[in-house]
Design a protein that fits this description.
227 residues, seven-stranded mixed beta sheet, alpha/beta
Length: 227
């Protein structure tokens, strides 16, 4: 079996798992997650896409972030992909209800290996971001690299996700990790290391750090502009 076949099989298994997990959760996802997916609006505020620019969210889920970002940055065009068809069904309904279908385009695809040109008619974007998605993707380093590969010259890859809760009580960390495991979420202790390594390998500029006493972690990778 070829590596392509293996990747396709892995992707279909991941899609089936996410559909199973969120088939019912998607209806209450935004209501429950707003209390503990901290730092999402901070990321959206910092996007600052250029006028007429393009923004891609990888792992867009219910479309909550895309709607908030489209409202916050009305001069940009937005795109989102997710591996779960169930989540995208909810996202399309939410986006239509918000009156933003003309500015937000969605596609079903694997964040670790996607063809943006085939999906959206464009290969790169001024801003690409992950919001609490890498902790749900087992081959998360591949997703990080794929995301950076979709960033246009001079553009930025941004992320926010669960941190290691290093300055929070141990009991809180234990309970949070147990809760997250129920939804196949695994905070990545190596996020900062992976971002730094990717920046060094690609000649990018990296910044980031913990948020909320380590509850969350953020990072930004700026791709060099073409000389």
């Amino acid at each position: 079996m070829s590596s392509t076949d293996n990747d396709a099989g892995r992707g279909s298994q991941a899609a089936a798992l996410m559909d199973q997990v969120y088939r019912h959760q998607r209806h209450i996802y935004d209501l429950t997650r707003k209390y503990y997916l901290l730092g999402r609006d901070r990321l959206i505020d910092r996007l600052e896409p250029p006028v007429g620019g393009t923004v891609l969210e990888l792992g867009c889920g219910t479309g909550r972030n895309l709607i908030a970002a489209a409202r916050r940055h009305p001069a940009a065009r937005f795109y989102g992909l997710d591996i779960s068809a169930e989540m995208l069904e909810t996202a399309r309904a939410n986006i239509a209800r918000a009156g933003l279908s003309s500015r937000i385009t969605l596609a079903c695809a694997d964040a670790t290996a996607f063809d943006a040109e085939a999906l959206f008619g464009r290969a790169t974007f001024d801003r690409v971001f992950f919001s609490y998605a890498l902790s749900m993707i087992p081959p998360w380093r591949e997703a990080l690299a794929a995301g950076y590969g979709a960033v246009a010259p001079g553009g930025v890859l941004s992320l926010v996700d669960f941190g290691q809760q290093e300055r929070l009580p141990r009991w809180f960390r234990t309970l949070l990790l147990a809760w997250l495991a129920r939804f196949h979420v695994s905070p990545r202790a190596e996020t900062a290391e992976a971002v730094a390594a990717l920046a060094e390998a690609r000649g990018a500029t990296a910044s980031g750090g913990p948020l909320y006493r380590g509850y969350a972690v953020w990072a930004e990778l700026r791709r060099p502009a073409v000389a």
